[in-house]
Specification:
Layout: E1 4-8, H1 12-24, E2 28-32, H2 35-44, E3 50-53, H3 62-70, E4 80-84, H4 89-98, E5 102-105, H5 110-121
Parallel strand pairs: 1-2, 1-3, 3-4, 4-5
Helix pairs in contact: 2-3
C-alpha cells in the first residue's frame, strides 16, 4: 500500500506542485490549505505517514499546526517536514523545537525533497 502524505500550504500552486512530485514517486497525497484544514483531514484519514507543511498560512499557521500535532498522542510520531520561504535561523530553530523532523527552505529541489521524504519514511 502506498504511503500517505499530507501536503499543507495556502498556495494552491505549491500544493499541486508538491502533490505532483510525490505522486510521481507512488505516494498517495491529501492536500490542505492551512493548519485547521489539515487537522480536519487528519482526523478523517485512516492514516497519514508524513506531513509537509508551510509556515505562513491563514487561520492556523504551520508552527501552531506542528505544536498541535505533537500534543496529540495519535500524531506525535508522524514525521513532519516544514517547507517554507522563511529561511532565517530563528524560524528553523522554532520549527524544529516544536517537533518538526526537518526544515527545508523554498524553493526546494524536487530530488532533495523526495530524498528527505523517503529517508523519513524509512
Amino acid at each position: 500500500m502506498a504511503k500517505h502524505i499530507l501536503m499543507v500550504d495556502d498556495s494552491k500552486t505549491v500544493r499541486n506542485l508538491i502533490a505532483f512530485i510525490v505522486k510521481k514517486e507512488g505516494f498517495h497525497v491529501t492536500t490542505a490549505e492551512d493548519g485547521l484544514d489539515a487537522l480536519e483531514k487528519l482526523y478523517a484519514a485512516s492514516n497519514v505517514d508524513l506531513i509537509i507543511t508551510d509556515i505562513n498560512m491563514p487561520r492556523m499557521d504551520g508552527f501552531t499546526f506542528v505544536q498541535n500535532l505533537r500534543e496529540q498522542e495519535a500524531f506525535r510520531d508522524v514525521p513532519v517536514i516544514i517547507l517554507s520561504t522563511e529561511g532565517q535561523e530563528k524560524d528553523k530553530e522554532q520549527g524544529l523545537s516544536l517537533g518538526a523532523n526537518l526544515y527545508m527552505v523554498k524553493p526546494a529541489q524536487p530530488e532533495w525533497l523526495l530524498k528527505n521524504v523517503k529517508m523519513l519514511l524509512g
